[in-house]
Fold each of these.
Amino acid sequence: MTTIKLSSNNFEINSVPIAFPLLLDTLEKSLNTNYRVHQLKHNTVFTWDELGILAYSKNGKLIDSITIVLEAEDYNFSPNKIFSGTFYFENKEITKYYKEHEDARVKLFKGDSSGALVLNNLSAWFSIEKDQVKAIEVSTYVPYKRGEGIPKDKYLIKSLEEETINFTDFGFKLSVVEELMYTKNLLKPVFDLYEFADWYQKREIDIDKEAYEPIEEVVQYFKDLPIPKRLAAEITEIYQDGGNDIYMNLAPFSGGAVEYWDIESSADAKHFPNLKKATLCYAKDQVYDDFIEMGIDTEWL
C-alpha cells in the first residue's frame, strides 16, 4: 500500500522525503515496483501501472513532477489502475475529505476554488470535477512572472525607416491589418491578445473581465502600428467578418454585432491601387456606395 503525505513542511512517499528535481533512482526505491517509460514530445513519462502513479521528466533523468491518478484515463501512458493507496494532506486523507465535506474545496484552498495549492516551494494542482478529485500533481512551485519568456520589445511600437501609410479611418486600417498580419503573414509581430496582456507591464489587463468591449491599450496599439507603404500593393481584397482575427484580438467577447470597427470613410482606398474586392459588415452605407463607384467589387456579408 502506497502512502503519500503532503503538508506545509514536507512531501514524502512511503516515508521517503521527496524534493524536486528528484533523482529517478530515489523514486524507484520509494515505489519499489516496475514501471514503463513513454516518450512524449517535451517530456518523458514514467508510469507505475499497478500504483496509479505518473512521473514526468524534461531530460529523462530528473523527475520534475509526480501525478497521482484517481480516475481512469485513456492515454498511452495512463496507468492500468487508479491510485489505491492513501494520500494525506495535512493529516487528512484527501479523497475521503472531499467526499465527506461539501465545503471541502473552500476549506482546503482557503477560499480559492481553482484547485491550485502552494506550500512553501511545492505546488499541488488538484484536478477536480463535480467535487471529486480526479488527479493530484505535485511539482516545484515556480512563481508566475508577467511577461516572462516574451521579448521585452516584442510589442513596442518602433519607428520604421521607410515610408508608411497615413490612414484617416481606423476601421479601414483594421481591415488592412487583417489581410497583412493574419491572412498573408506579412506584418510582424502577429498580435496575440493573451500574449500582449501577459507582456504589458503598466497594468494588469484582465481579459475575462475587460474583453467584452475594446481594450484601450490594444486599440491604441493598432492605432499607433505603422504600416509600410511597400505593402500597399499586397492588398487586393478586404474581407470583414465578426470572427476575423483582428476583431477577436480587440474584443473577443463583444459578440460581433458592434459598430466599433465601422469603416466611416472610403478615403484610404487611394493608398491601395490593387484593391479590387471588398466584403463588408462593418462599414457605413456611403462607404459601400463609394467602393462601387471606384470600381471595387463590393458586397455585404
Amino acid sequence: MADSRTLPQPPAGGTPTVLVIGGGASGNAVTILLRRAGIAVDLIEAKPDWNATTGSGITLQGNALRVLRELGVWEQVKASGYAFGSLGVTAPDGTVLFVAEDIQTGGEDLPATLGMQRPQLQQILIDTVRASGADVRLGTTAETLEQDADGVSVRFSDGSESRYDLVIGADGLSSATRAAIGITDKPEPTGMAIWRIAAPRPESVTRTDLAYGGPAYIAGYCPTSENTIYAYVVEACRDRASIDPATYADEMCRLAQSYGGVWPEITEHITDPKKVNYTWFDHLLVEGSWHRGRVVLIGDAAHCCPPTLAQGAAMSLEDALVLAELLTSGRDWDDELFQTYHDRRIPRVRTVVAASMQIGQWQLDGVRDADMAGLVGRTMNLLKERP
C-alpha cells in the first residue's frame, strides 16, 4: 500500500472518481452529496434488494433530520414519518411517570424527533441516489483493494476491475473494507439484545414511551407513520443459536405480555415470527485514523453504539456530510484532509458512543440512582452544534 502522503491528487480539470462500498444510510448520503458536486461515483451494495425491505422502524432526531434536509429529502421524509417532540417514561403497568420535552438538536425549524419505517427511509435514499446519476451495482462486493502511486485498483465479485481516486467504505458493522485496509478493531457485544416488530399504531400513541423494569430492561415503542409503530423489548443477550427463529413471535410476546398501557394491543399483532427481528447490541469505535491512503471509512464501519440514545443513523449521516464537505472544498485529497475528517468527527462520535454505552451499562448493573436525564441532556445539547 502506498504512503498516503505521496498519492497524487484528483486530476486537475478532470472528474474525480469515487467508489462507495455499501448502500446504507451513510453510503447513500455521501453518494448523493458527491454527485451533486459533479464527482463521478460508483456505488456497490452486497444485498441484491439494496436492503429496501429490511427493518421495522427507525428513530431520527433533529441532527439526523438536518442532514436529510441537506440531502434534499426532508419533505419526503416528513410526509412518510411521524414527528413528535416529547418522550414518556412509564411504569411496567403503563402508568405514565413523567413526560420530558425532547431537545431540538437539528434547530428550531425541525422536529425534535421523527419516527419512520426503515424501508421507507431506505427507499427515499435509493430513489435519490438513482436520480443523482451514480452508477449502482447490486449484489456486488469489492474482492481486493490495491493502492499505488496513481490511485486504487478494485477487483469486484463479478470479475470486473476499475480504478478510483478514492474508495469510501460504508459497508457497516462487519466491514470487509475496514479489515482489508488493516484496521483490526472489531465490534463487541454490549450484553444486551433487542426484539423488534412493526405493528399498527394505537390511536393513543403519539410519541415514544419507554417502560423500565419488568421482565425486560426496556419495553418501548415509537410511532413511524399515521398508521404504524415499531415496538421493541430489550433483554440480556442470549445465545442466538439456542433460539429457534420459528419461536421469535412467542419469545417477544412472552416478554411483552407483562407490560400494560397499549402493550396488550401491540402484543395482539406479534404473531408472525418472520416479522420479528432479534439483534444483539454491539459497540465499536475506531480511535485511530479512519483512513489508509485513499480508502476511508464512514458510518458503522468506523463506529456504532447501542440505540439507547437513538443516534446511530444520525452519526452515520453526519459522517457523510462532513466527508463530502471536505472532499468538495477544493482542498487536496491527501492525508491532511482525511485526518481533518477524523479529527472533526471523533470527539462527537466518542461522546455519543460513551453515553449510549453508559446508559446500557447502568441498566445491566441495576443502578437505580443513575443520572440518566442529566447524561442525555448534556449529550443532546452538544449535538445541537453543527458537526
Amino acid sequence: MVRAAVLPAVGAPLEITDIELPDPGPGQVRVRLAAAGVCHSDLSLSNGTMRVPVPAVLGHEGAGTVVAVGEGVEHLAPGDGVVLNWAPSCGACPACALGEVWLCANALNGAADVYARTADGTELHPGLNVAAFAEETVVPASCALPLPAGVPLADAALLGCAVLTGYGAIHHSARVRPGESVAVFGVGGVGLATLQSARIAGASTIVAVDVSPEKEELARAAGATDYVLASENTAREIRALTGRQGVDVAVECVGRAVSIRTAWDSTRRGGRTTVVGIGGKEEQVTFNALEIFHWGRTLSGCVYGNCDPAADLPVLAEHVRAGRLDLSALVTERIALDGIPAAFENMLAGKGGRALVVF
C-alpha cells in the first residue's frame, strides 16, 4: 500500500488515503516518486474544466526512481532516475506521422485505464496517465523518460510539464529570436518557466504581467525586465514600453478570455500571440474581421509547448547544467501530499509560483 491523493468525484475534495498498486505488467514500470509539481491543469481536472475518468489519482508533473520493471522493458532498470511524461506519443496516428507528437491522438488513452485500487477495492484511474500525486505509481514505460545527467531528481519533476511547456512556447511555438520583445501573461509555474526561456532565447525586453504585485520579485528573478500589473490599461502600458509598437511576442499562460484578448492587443502589427493557458468553454474571445486583416498578427494555441519530450529534455538539461535554467526558482512552496488542496486554493487566488510535493 502507498499513500496517494485521490479525487473521488469531479468537484469533490481530494482524499489522502492508502491505495494498492499491482506489480508492473508487460511494458510497465513502477516508480517511487521523489517529487510532483502541482499544476493548474490538476486543478482544472479536479473542478471539471477538463474531463478525466474518476475516481482518479491526479498529478502529471513528476520525477522519481524506478523500483521494478515489467516484462519487455529494456531501456530502464531498477535504480534509474526518470521524469514522467504524461503525454507519450503513439508514433502511429496522423499527428505523430507529421512529427507533431504533442498532438498525438492516443496520448491520453491510458487515463481511462484502471491502474490501482483503494483499500476497499474501489477502482482508480491514473489521472493524466501517470498519477504522480502518490508515493509510488505504475506507468507504461513510454511514460518514463531517463533522467538527464546533472539534474537534481526532485527539481527534475518540473521538467515534466511547466518547463517543457514554457520552453516550448518560446522556442517551438512563438520561435522567439534574439533581440525580440516578449510579454508573458501570468507568473505561475509555467509563466516563470516562460520568462526564463525568453531570457535564454535572447529576448531584449521581457514584460511580465500578473494581477499580483507580490510576484514582481519572482518575475524579475526569472528574467523580466519590466513588470505590469494587469488592468484595463495593460496593452497600453506594454505598447508604451515598446516604442508604442507592442511586443513581438505575447505568451498567455492564464487561460482567460480577457487575458488572451489583452495579449493579442499587446502584440505589434505582424507579431505573434501564443496561448498556453487552458480555459473553459465559457471563456469566449472575440475579434472583428477588420482588425484581423489590419494587424496581421498570428494567434496560435500551444499544447505541451509543442514539445517532443524525449528530444527536448536533453536540451533543457544542458541549460540546467550551464546555469542558464534555474528549476528551483520556479518553486515557491515545498509541501506534503496533504498540502495539495491548499496549493489549489493558492492557484485560485493567484498566489505564488509552483508548489512542489516532496516525498
Amino acid sequence: MTVAMAPSDAFWSPEEAEGPEEPASASPADAESPSPSAGEAGPADAARLISEDARAFGAYARTGGWAFGLKVARSVRPGGQGAGETPKISAKEFAELAGCSAERVMRYYKAWDKAADDGMVPHFEALTPGMEVELPDADAWTTYYASRSSALTPRGNAISEAAEAEGIRPTKALEVAENPTALRAAILADPGTAEAARKALMDRIDEDPALRTELVRDIVRTDDLKKAVAAGSKAGDRVDYVRQIVEKGQVKTPAGQLIDAPAELREEAERHLSLIDELDEGEDSGEWAREAYDTVRDLIAETVQSNPELRVRERRAKFYSSLQKATKVFEELTFDDVDDIDDIYEDDMVERLEDLRQAIGACIAALQSATTQGQAPVVPAQQGPADASPERREHSPA
C-alpha cells in the first residue's frame, strides 16, 4: 500500500499519551508556507484543508503507526552512517523539528528496525527522504512498537512477552508494572483485582523460591494467616478422611482397627462429600468439612457399640495402645543422666510412682484372674499389639 502523507501531518499517534509533550501541529514545510486559519480560509482553501485531513486520517486508519514510522525511517540517519554520507538528519534534530523528544523518535526508529529484520519493511539504508513504500497493515504495528521506554529493558521485554502470552497488549502490562502504587490501590479496593493478583502469585511461586520464602515468612509473622492456614489444613484433613471412606469402603475406629464401612456409613459419607465438591471455588469448606467429619465419626462409634464382638476388639485394641504408650514412657524414665538423685528428688515423685505401682498391680491382678478362670483374651489375627501401636495406626484428624 503506497501512502502519501499530507505535509501538515503531526508526528504523533493516538497510542501515545504518556507525557507532557504536546504533538507538533505542523511540519517544517508548514512553517515556510503556513496554511490559512479556519476563520481566514475561503471555501476553496477550506475544502483543500478538509481533503488533506481526510487523506491523512485514511492513511493512519489503514497503516496506523507505520505511517509515522516511515517518516522516521526515511528521514533519520541510521547508526553508523556519517553525517556527510546521507541527507538524513539525527534523531535529535528530527525531534527538535517535530516538537517532541528524541526518545520518542527512537522508539519509532527501533520498531521499524525490528520490522525490517523480519522483512516487513525496507531497511533504513534503502530509504531516502520523501520516499513512499508499501506499508503493512495497522494491526502489525503493535508487534514491533513499544510506546513506553521501559519496554526496551530486559525487565520490560519479559513483561511484554508475558502480556502477549496472556493475549493482552504489552503497553497495558508495562503501565501497571510502572505504577506499583496504582496496582496496590486496585488490589485493596477491588476483590476481583485482588483475586487476579493472588492467582498470579500462585502461578509464579513454583519458579520463584525467593517469593515463596517471603510468603511463608509473612504467614508465620501474621497470626490471622497462621490461624487461617491451620484451619484450612484441618478442613483438608477432614475432607480426605471422608473421601477415603467413600473410595476405599473401609474406616479406622478410634482405637485404630480397620473395618469395612457399613452401607449406611458409606452413603452418608458420599452425601457429605458431594455437598463439599459442589461448593463454589473459593467458598469456605471448613464448616462443611467439620459437619461431614463429625457425622461419620458418630456413625463409626455407633457401629462399634452396636456390634458386641467389634466392641470387645475395640476395647482390647485401646488397652494395647495405652499399654504400649505407657511402656515407652517408662523405658525413658531412668536416672542414667543424673549425677546425684538428691538434686532432683521431690517427695511427690515417690507418691506418684506408688500410685502407679498400685494401678499396675490392679491391672495385673485382673488379667491374672481372667487367666485363672480360663478366660485369657484371644487376640484376633487381624489385631495384635504391633498392629495397635501408635506408630502403625493411622491418625485421624482431630
